[in-house]
Amino acid sequence: MGARELAAFGRAEILESGADAGLLGACQKGDPQAFARLVALHERMVLDLAFRLVGDREEAKDLAQDAFLQVYKTLGRFEGRSSLKTWIYRIVLNLSRNRLRFWKRRHRAQSCPLEALAPAEEAKVSNRTESPFDACSRQELGARVQAALLRLPFEQRAILLLREAEDLSCAEIATSLGVREGTVKSRLARARDGLRRELTGVFVKEPAE
For residues 45 and 14, is the Cβ–Cβ distance under 8 A? Predict the structure, then answer.
């Protein structure tokens, strides 16, 4: 499973670091319109990442609200040692990890309903000439990938998503997770191997009759 498949699975568009810096400055000065703009620009990225991590669309919405609330409360302490997007990723990762621990204590399993894997954004950009069969096949494939991701340990799943779907460098991932870059590389290798095993046969086309 490489970057192409996971990138097709959903990648959020985000600001360049220079534009982020200007927006951040306005937010730190208390400009409510600037913060609303920040939320609008990063909301899809936060929602997608939270959903891929926990496997539940409604929980992902709650996590996104919590993440932006935490961003708002801590903006004044952001010193710019990392990019704004990396900082937001770290908040989402921590909240998602804590939510899964909360579920585990209450013996709740991660969920991944098939219908939750077709976000409105995908429908907007999908091929309008796509047949119902092709649309169904694509949705089913997405469900299998997401289910395979959820079977990986959280740290491996997070690193794989940040590297392959969000296109972060190993250094940026290390900052987001608060670990060494070497740790990221070793976990990424294990995550790729694990996902490859989980997806054995999924991307093999059936022979034509």
Answer: yes
pLDDT at residue 15 tops 70: no
Residue 177 · residue 155 · CB < 8 Å: yes
Residue 4 phi, psi (nearest 5): -60, -45
Is pLDDT of 162 > 50?
yes
Closest Cα to residue 21, out of 29, 10, 13? 29
**Amino acid occupying residue 179:** V
Token digits of residue 181:
């870059």
Q: How far apart are CA 152 and CA 161, in angstroms?
A: 11
E strand spans, the chain: none
Average pLDDT value for residue range 99-106: 85
Q: What is the dihedral of CA 97, 140, 116, 159, to 10 degrees?
A: 20
Say whether pLDDT at 61 is over 90.
Answer: yes
Nearest to 92 by CA among 123, 54, 130: 54
Residue of 80, 53, 74 lying closest to 64 (CA atoms): 53
Average pLDDT of the chain to the nearest whole number: 78
- Domains of the chain, first to last: 8-115+129-198 (1.10.1740.10)
pLDDT in tens, 175-198: 888 899 999 999 999 999 999 998
Is the pLDDT at 209 greater than 70? The verdict is: no
Q: How far apart are CA 166 and CA 164, in angstroms?
A: 6
